[in-house]
User: Fold Penicillin-binding protein from Paenarthrobacter aurescens.
Amino acid sequence: MVTRKNPLFDTATTLGKILGFLGVSAICGVLVAGLLVPAAAVSGSAASGSIQFFDTLPAELQVDPPSQNTTILAKDGSPIASIYAENRTRVPLDQMSPFIKDAVIAIEDSRFYEHGGIDTTGIMRALVSTARGNKQGASTITQQYVNNVINESLVAADREEDVKLNGGGKGVGDKLREMKLAIALEKKFSKEQILEGYLNIVFFNRDAYGIEAASKFFFSTTAKDLTLPQAALLAGLVNSPSAFDPIANPDSSKVRRDLVLASMVNQGKITQAQYDEAVATPVTTQVTPARQGCAYATMAPYFCDYVLHLLFNDPAYGDTTEERIKRVQRGGLTIQTTLDPTAQNVAQQQVDATAGANPDKWGASIVSVQPGTGQIVSMAQNTVWLPQEGKFDQTQNFNVDVLDKNGNDLNGIGGFQPGSTMKPFTFAQWLNEGKSMETNVNAAVRKYPQNFPWRNTCPTPTDGFYDGNVQGSFDLQNAEPQYYRNMTVLWGLKNSINTATFASAAQVDLCGIQGIVDATGIHGGLPARDDTGKITDPNPQVQMTRLSNLIGATQTAPLTMAASFATFAADGKYCEPIAITSVKDQSGASLPAQSSSCKDAVKPEVARGVAYAMGKVLDEGSGSLIRPALNSKNFPVAAKTGTNDSNGSTWVVGYTSGLATASWFGDPLGDQLRPGRNLTVNGKFYPAIDGYMIAGPQFTNYMLAVAPAYGTNPFQAPPSNLTGAPTPQRNNTPSNTTPSTAPKPPATGNGNSGNGNNGNKD
Assistant:
């Protein structure tokens, strides 16, 4: 059975409309009375009850700054990337075009400067219009601001489901609360402050919150430079960002814009001539797409990502990772970093020139730090963050560890086998024990059996042996057979002779080598795990009592190597790498950042001796093929080449007095077991790659362009007792000049085989 309407109350009839109007008017009267006069001045139980309800509503609104963009800056203040949950850049009212202020008032709240938070005339008009069947809003700009502030706080608290938009989902209680808060807000803030807050918080587009972001997104301009037609369009957009979107719905957008312009001319905010010219202007946009995150960084996306992970891992920014991410994405932070854009540009050009587009996905990277401060100057690799045709896409950072020292993610690949770039640490211990680098050692020795009398004062036992007479092992190997002979320790280092390094190590305390490696920040880039896969150490010690590590068997990150070598450039002072020099919130207050953390790690005379010897590496030894280019600038450079067993990881790590750099080329994929042999890079075929071949020119070209800006002073000379005349060989190593017939093993990383850099001279 159909329920029949009571004709007396049917709003379709004239009488129904009259009664509906009277009823709405009565309700309106109660609301207005409750808002404008004290309860004692109103009689009647219904009115008193409404006023009592109104009086219980909160009158305080916490106006927190809305979500704003966080900006990551390079050292010179140039932008690297913008990070946000809502694309918003707050600007003061005096940095907004007068047209946008007049336009939004004209269309949204023409009596803005007359009312005290609510517009009773507007309420009456809206109620009458609604009673007649034409729904109409009556929210003032202040009320809309209140609604936006409430919703913004709900979103920030992860309560998006509680957000209530104007025009939907609100009950009478919600509107009353909004009205009371608007009245209270008008007592606390000036009209200009409210208008500024409103224009900075209001939603224009999913990629544009606030007038500055909207100006840039739709017109590639600023809020200050908006023209009259542009301002009128954006003011009209507030009412319905989807319906009046000038990109998707240009015709509807023009109708709405022209309505705004008509309101402006009717209210005397513009002249008739201005109106005529503006309405004749076609709706056009010049979109600047919002680019959020390090994937869209203007430079150094992997450095940008590293910076973000440092903040996400810092308890100063929140108790949980989620809180820290929210703080960064919504906090409007300004993050000043150490990155030098000029150096970064050169680094990126070099790695791209090395192997920017290679279908076999060989990797190249450069990272440099400043000795004495630890500041990261550049960080580049030959990949792109977002997939691009013909490019090697990768989101992991080639230059950093997998985890930080607290076990937090750094999104790093964990490094690569450093090969012979580990040899200077044995050399440093040789000098540390007061021995001359001109002392002869027997580099003909190839067997270091299980019972070899290593000197090791560390509690960690010596691990590994080289003995071709034992099944599964092999004799220590050099790349070329003519170097199994007596030579000075210096000659052995500069020519990267494996047997010379072992002959040196046999005459020093392995625990001393360990101490230098630890003091200069060397650690494994991959976390250590137990048999169940649980992480036991995020940055494990590189055990120098494991013999294979004397020639570089444990994966180590390029940033770690650069910072360690910077110790020798800084006269023995090690500084932890840092990327962030300051962080400020949107009020300008300083937040925790990084500062240089340095310590004396190596005796100055030892550091000077290492610099002297690694200068010889370039002048006369394994790096001599990359020195001629450096000679064109004629500044002192110290460096060491490195290649692992499989030729799949090749390096040059070196420094001037003002800049330390790690240059790497090799296999960054999976277990990194691809041999670097029989490959073609940039049209050139390589039977086998070594450090000087690809990583070397990359290092040289970078240092030629960048190092002079950071200082290229001569290195201080080491004391004469470390560079003195040859001394007799200490005969505590067995002589064995018989070549082994044992085959060269694969790079398995088996500590028992002493695997690390056997068979490669670089």
In short: The CA atoms of residues 444 and 660 lie 34 Å apart.
